[in-house]
Amino acid sequence: MSTEHEQILQAVRQVTAERSNGALLSATQPHADTLHFVVDKKAMRSVADGLFNQLHARFLISVGTDKRPLSGDFGILHVFSLDRDHVYVLLESPIAEDDLRVDSITPVVPGADWAEREFQDAIGVHPEGHPDPRRLLLPDDWPEGVHPLRRDFPYNFRPPAVENVRPKMRETPAGASVLPMGPFFPVLEEPAYWRLFVEGETIVGCDTRLFYNHRGIEKLGDSVLTYDQIPSLAERICGICGFIHSTCYCQAVEKAAGIQVPRRARYIRTIMLELERIHSHLLWLGIAGHIIGFETVLMQTWRIREPVMWLCETISGNRKTYGMNTIGGLRRDLPNDVRPELLSTLATIEKESIAVHNAIVGDSVLRARTEGVGVITSESARSVCVVGPPARASGVAIDARIDHPYAAYDEVPPRIVVQEAGDTWARVVVRVGELLESIRLVREALAALPGGPICAEINAGIPPDKVGVSVVEAPRGEAIHFVMTGGDNRPYRWRVRAPTYANLQALPAAVMHGTIADVPITLGSLDPCFSCTERVETIDRRTREVRVYSRAELLRMSRGNRLPGGAR
Amino acid sequence: MTQPLAVLLQCLLNVAIALLLSPLYEGLLRKVRAAIHSRIGPPVTQPYWDLLKLLGKEDLRSGGGAVYSSLPPLVLGSLLLLATLVPMGAAAPLAFAGDMIAVLYVAAMSSVLIMLNAYASGSPYASVGSSREMMMALSVEPILAIALVVGAFKAGTLALGGMTAFQVQNGPSISMTIAGLAFFLALQAQSGKLPFDTAEADQEIMGGPLVEQSGPRLALLRWAMWTKQLVLAFLLVEVFLPWPRFGILPVDLALSGVKVLVVLLVVELVDVVNPRVRIDQAMGYFVRVALASLSALAFAVIGK
Question: What pTM value is reported for the model?
Answer without folding.
Answer: 0.89
